[in-house]
Amino acid sequence: MRALLRQAVDDLARDPRGVRAREALTAGHLSGAPTQEAAARRLGLPYGTYRRHLRQGLDLLCEAQWQRESYGTGEAEPGPGS
Fold first, then answer.
1. Cα–Cα distance between 22 and 29 in angstroms, integer?
2. How far is CA 51 from CA 13, 41, 59, in A?
3. What number of CA atoms fall less than 13 Å from residue 64's CA on the CB side?
4. Which residues in the chain belong to E strands, given as ranges?
5. How crowded is the C-beta side of 3, counted as CA atoms within 13 Å?
6. In this predicted model, what pLDDT tens digit does every residue of 10-68 receive, in sequence order?
7. Where are the domains of the chain?
8. How far apart are CA 63 and CA 75, in angstroms?
């Protein structure tokens, strides 16, 4: 399960808006930082900025997993008019 989660987080970096989000998720949840403040320091970010990137990462990760569950891939199926 950890390997699948790590791969899903790493996949966020394929989209330019997911690069910082991936860094925040990795620092805060996958690389053993004892606190979120420590993760922010590790990334050289103010705590509020770190939290914003972390929230974006969680949102992107949830969306990617929802798409994978719904459609079997990381990509959404084209909708009407696409």
1. 10
2. 18, 12, 12
3. 20
4. none
5. 0
6. 999 998 989 999 999 999 999 889 999 999 999 999 999 999 999 999 999 999 889 88
7. 2-71
8. 10
